[in-house]
Anti-sigma-I factor RsgI6 (Dichanthelium oligosanthes), 370 residues
Amino acid sequence: MGNPMEPLYNGGIIWNGEFNNGLLGWSAPWGVEATVRTSPSGNKFAAALRRGAKPSHSVIQKIQMQSNTHYALSGTGADAALDILVDSVSLQPFTADEWNAQRTFSADRARKSSTPELHITLHINRSRAGFPFGNAMSKEILDVPAYERWFTSRFMVTTFEDEMKWYSTERVQNHEDYRVPDAMLPLAQRHGIKVRGHVVLWDDQRRQMGWVKPLDPGQLQAAMRKRIRSVVSRYAGKVIAWDVVNENLHYNFFESRLGPDASPEIYQQVAQLDGAAMLFMNEFKTLEQPMDTAALPAKYAAKMNRIRSYAGGNAAGLRVSIGLESHFSTPNIPYMRATLDTLAQLGIPIWLTEVDVTGGPMQARYLERY
């Protein structure tokens, strides 16, 4: 609680969300002790203590959103032995119409100039999207001309599905095979399609080859560095980005064996080999699942800041970017908006690196909402 992010929307309809005025506007259920503490840096925050009587209770602020109807905003935790600390609280209601209006306004601001032109007639033949719009590419494109024609007429950016991954290029230790991605890359380049490097390493233990899992820390470090040098040096300057350590919030294969700074060290190594590429932290369920505690926006931001600050990352010009895998079912627009606004405070690019919506009769409508 030393230096939390600023509350979104200046707190919205929440009063005293930074607790600079003590607990004014806040309350606590019977049996819960609520107090305001001050961190060594001078930041004030609320603490809910001794919650044994009601383990699910903490500090509460009541708000009136509709006539004669009250709602309560509170943070809870089932483990009564833990204190709950609260700061930078915000809540901003909006309607579906307001969301659509803001979406249109933001798109217009990004894609249109602010200078109106009168008494002119325009004829537009759109040959390509004006913003990065891509799709995954599989190796079958090398042998199916119809697939190549369909793909190359629609997309500006691509990510190879599996063909650059470690388990595809070095299935057997010390026997590397890049023939497939070596053929796919020039095909994309011929059509002006930019390629994202996917992935340098994957933190999921299930995605490691059988020969990798039993390596001791020293052997794993050597194999990991060899992999980084091999794939990044081979395609440096030919790809626009790297998914460096894939899904390192949900998984921790390399951290569990090489220490908590494994990810930041890997980002530094990749940056030294390809300083021009964007280095993504690629993660799922940060944007689409509010109940997935492994990948909450605050945890994403904390991990990204650790990567950026490690060994002078910012001073060295580490070009990190936010990569959000986006596997949607029913849209939760308020949570999506709050997540994007939270991550935007990092001040670095945000890409939706994967987008899909569960099939069904509402799929088209949900895609439009997203």
